[in-house]
Amino acid sequence: MMGADTGAEGVSAAATYRRDFSMRALLSTALFAYMGFILMVIVANAVWLTRENPRTHESYLVALVANQDLRSQVVSSFRLSLISSIITTIIAVLMAVPSAYALSRFRFRAAAFIDTVIDLPLVVPPLIAGIALLLFFRQSPIGRLIDEHVVPVVYTRTGIVVAQFFIASAFAIRAIKAAFDQVNPRFEFVARSLGCGPWKALFKITLPLARNGIVAGTVMTWARSMGEFAPVMMLAGATPGKTDVLPVAAFLNMSGGHIEAAVAIVVLMILIAAVTLITFKRLGGQGYIW
Amino acid sequence: MIEVRDVSLTLGEFHLRDIDLLVDEGEYAVILGPTGAGKTVLLECIVGIHEPARGQVVLDQRDVTRMRPEQRGVAYVPQDYCLFPHMTVFDNIAFGMRLRKWPSGRVSGRVDELARLLHIEPILGRRPLTLSGGERQRAALARALAVEPRVLLLDEPLSAVDERTRERLCDELKAVQRHFGTTTVHVSHNFEETLAVADKVAVFERGRIAQVGTPEDVFCRPNSVSVALFVGITNLLPGAVRPGDGLPEFISGGLRFAVDTGLRGPAVAAIRPENIHLLAADEAHPDILPSGRVARLTDKGALVKVAFTTAGVDLVALASKREVSRLRIEPGAEVAFEVSPHAVHLLPGDGGDAAFSVEGPRADGTAVV
């Protein structure tokens, strides 16, 4: 009943609850144990880079920086990842904003079916998605038509974007739909009763109010695209210098014995993930599922 | 002028059934009903958020049933006000005027006028999230009135403000409505609020309009037992009207009193608790005035609710605290009472089957009684 007034007051309630210390300590053990596990893994990787290679007596990081081939390979992988993921994110968000709005506001007859289909790329194992994509572009009439006559996809850099898009879009729709769900549809109706057309209401009211959520979703979509591995490798291949985005490069370096390059990529990607997560949460992003 | 003609609509668990409502030019109408009766849905049909499955919405002789909200000239203040949180109060109020491409001088002049009228000049630069309930209510009202609407719709406008603010806002709402002469529909579940503002009351009950009339009609002359219960008439006595010497007599159990009615036969007497006048048992002559035994007292703040039993009938009266102490009313005490023939409203028939179940439609705790 107090509709307009409650929201802000309820938020910090958890902070003021009475605490039972022994219960709190006991139950939090699992939480902190798991967190410790994650942090140990990260630290181990970062520390390893600074360790001395017993054969060459220089640290792995120094060796990596000194090795110009390896260094420029990591740098070009990073650039490839950055460019492809930014292109993917732009396309995915342009498609996701209208889709998410439609999902959030309109009633569809087959809502459950639509929801399930949209979420499938997130739930299907990435490798499986990659194989499925490859089969589509290589064996199906429509896929072959695209690959052979419109734009080559398989084993090309375009394939990187297509593979990233296939998965990241589902993610973008989820995150941005959550942003629209947060905006009370009444705002639009009030605007319309004041003489605002439906499109204007969308652009003047709903989009500005959902802005932070949309930006948060965009950031996470980008991070997800950066990290895509198996589908990219399946559809775009793992050609060094051509389709080796960061995760693929890490994989190639692990198999090729250049462990310092692989670990450098690991540390770099963990950093990127941390920064994006912090940004996402700062912006109040919601609805992220993997 | 608003005409709702035979509107029906099902929306999830809400059903509107054959709604007919006429609000005259410049009239202040209140749709009064319990929470969950579908009042908001009806309001949203007039705004144009929902399209009725059947029936018409007519504004100033213009059928707007299929028209979009932005074409109707209906300003709307939803229950949670929905002030645009990314704009200042000024920009909120100016929103509709800017859409109409008014020159900026005219816009700010109008904002100032409304701000003065509603006492919100100091908050024009603030964001809605920093405002109190009363300030939000005023800002939302200013935003709605800014576009000079033909019709103003208010959904529970006073439910999110505290008791004291509510009283003041009631007066202001009415004054502002008089000032602009805007035809207004106000949805409420609160009697005091309704009495303070309404020219016309439509009692809403499970998706239907049960009664339309002046506040006086609805509160003193409900047309059914359920409306009587809803408007706080707790004394509902099944019985029958018989010719008496002079005025006819109403007989319920062992209780009989004179009534002013043309009705004969089975009827239900509805008596507002404040219309039962209590007297000291020894002051009154037992042959003239009936008396009863007090069962319990409930403190209602300014007044005390006195429940007593007479001739096997349970009645409730409202008395001031002074009267209670002067007459020494306390549980177990004897008390005489008097009911004016004009204070008894008679409903023909036996009141129907749902009539006397306590579970029937009732008001929530905000009722006067």
Query: Spatial order of the strands in the main sheet of chain B?
Result: 6-7-8-3-9-10
Number of E-state strands of chain A: 0
Largest beta-sheet details of chain A:
none
> Over all CA atoms, what is the radius of gyration of chain B?
24 Å
Please give the share of residues in helix of chain A: over 70%
Tally of DSSP β-strands of chain B: 20
How many distinct folded domains of chain A?
1
Net shape of chain B: elongated
Helix content of chain B: 10-25%
Gross geometry of chain A: globular
Q: Please report the number of helical segments of chain B.
A: 9
Question: Strand share of the residues of chain B?
Answer: 25-35%
> How much beta of chain A, percentage-wise?
under 5%
**Structurally, how many domains make up the residues of chain B?**
2
Radius of gyration of chain A: 23 Å
SSE ordering of chain B: EEEHEEEHHHEHEHEEHHEEEEEEEEHEE
What is the CATH architecture descriptor of chain A? Orthogonal Bundle
Most extensive interface, chain pair and sizes: A-B, 23 and 31 residues
Description of the molecule:
The complex is a heterodimer of chains A (290) and B (369). Chain A is mostly helical and 290 residues long. Chain A has helices at 3-10, 13-16, 21-50, 60-66, 68-105, 111-123, 126-139, 141-150, 157-181, 186-193, 198-227, 230-236, 246-255, 259-282. Mean pLDDT of chain A is 89; it is low at 1-10. Chain B folds into two domains: 2-219, 3-Layer(aba) Sandwich (Rossmann fold), CATH 3.40.50.300; 233-348, OB fold (Dihydrolipoamide Acetyltransferase, E2P) (Beta Barrel). Chains A and B meet through helix 1, helix 10 and helix 11 of A and strand 6, helix 2 and helix 4 of B.
